[in-house]
Amino acid sequence: MATAVALAASAAQSQPTTTTTTTTTTTLRVFAGGANQRPDLMKKLFAEYAKTRPGLVIETESGGATSDLQRQYLSTVLNAKDPSIDIYLIDIVNPAQYFGAGWLEPLNAWVGEPATAMAPYLPVYARANVVGGKVAAMPAFADAMLMYYRRDLLAKHGMAEPKTWDELSTVAQKIQAAENAGSAPGKRLQGLSIQGAPIEGTVCTFLLPYWSQGKDLQGPDGKPTLDREAAARGLKQWLSMVDAGVIKKNVAEVKTPDTVNEFKAGQVLFAIGWGFAWERFQSDADSKVKGMVGVMPIPAVAGGKSATCIGGWQWAVSAFSRHKDESARLVRFITSPAASKFLAVNGGLMPSHTAVYADADVLKAHPWFADAATAVEGGRARPMSRDYGQVSDAIRTATSAVLARVHTPEEGTAQIGSRLARILR
């Protein structure tokens, strides 16, 4: 009830200061992502807003199980300057790319200048959503690469949460040795699951150990700043855990759903995955790890500092929309603190607003957000570029090839460096 009241108040605040009588019907069409972005909850937000706007009809389109598939679809629609979709839910890596292509309407006139508009949100979103002094998109909800682990197994074997990758490897090997004694090969516990297939998540697989060494991939001017020695060291860290039996040998084939499903089935001790996975572990009928899952900071390379890869989804208005004013007002409503709280309480979607992580109702519904807050507040964004698709391809394909042992870490790092120098020049 409290959330409904807050949403109603937020919807009212999103309206113009003068009231007019609507005599015609305006239809907005919204692309609300795939199942993991909870379009069912977005529809409830739209319905709450529409109550305050007589004559407004909001239609929802959804689809694309992954960020990659959604990006392919949206790139086709926007490149064709199709006005049929007014508002898009887009990944954190897309605002710079889409705005640079002229596909998004700047939102300053509706949300204020960047410093004011982005102040309530997690710091990383200012960098992701502000392009050339223009607000290209507004944060819908957050996401981050989190380290999930089996609390029950660490407690059973008297192990503390590891702080470095070397510590994790040691802890994993000890627990694996005890748990796998006498087990059939197909029933053995994996130590750590990461993504190594040439998918978007593998960009983060490359970045996590690299960032933890205090290194950046891109300077303030957008130019590449790859430290090849540190990058190779990060890739060697993964390979050392493959050799130790902590990460499985076919890691170069592992995709995000593989990690989620294997951890959910009780087959993995530690797993790196996006925030949406928590609900899968706790709520799916076939989950064997309900009530056994913990969240801890991503380990660092020895001597470094934990860093995580921030994801999340943004609302953007199409530059080709015929209803930009109405669209922008809806975006202002669905990115409000009340909307962020609604999505957190009802869908377990991580808030984009800093203050919502401390909300009593949110923490009552999802106590694990208290642990997640530390990770997301210090999280980092992947490179921002209008050519992000090429940036992603350069990193993911080379990283996957190294994990498949097609290339050495040095060779893979050299390939990434050469391609980024051309793309981000």
Number of strands: 11
Q: Look at the structure and name the CATH superfamily of the largest domain.
A: Periplasmic binding protein-like II
CATH architecture of the largest domain: 3-Layer(aba) Sandwich
Q: Strand percentage, roughly?
A: 5-15%
Model description:
Helices cover 45% and strands 13% of the residues. Helix 18 (388-403) packs antiparallel against helix 19 (409-423). It has helices at 2-13, 39-50, 67-79, 95-100, 108-111, 114-118, 124-129, 151-156, 165-179, 201-211, 228-243, 256-264, 277-283, 324-334, 337-347, 360-365, 369-377, 388-403, 409-423, and strands at residues 26-31, 56-61, 87-91, 130-131, 134-135, 138-144, 146-150, 190-193, 268-273, 293-296, 310-317. The longest helix is centred in the middle third of the chain and has 16 residues, at 228-243. The radius of gyration is 22 Å and the shape is globular. 49% of the residues are buried. The chain folds into 2 domains: 2-144 and 311-377, Periplasmic binding protein-like II (D-Maltodextrin-Binding Protein, domain 2, 3-Layer(aba) Sandwich); 146-307 and 387-423, Periplasmic binding protein-like II (D-Maltodextrin-Binding Protein, domain 2, 3-Layer(aba) Sandwich), CATH 3.40.190. It has a 5-stranded mixed beta sheet. A 4-stranded mixed beta sheet has the order 8-9-7-10. Strands 4-5 form a two-stranded antiparallel ribbon. It is of the alpha/beta class and 425 residues long.
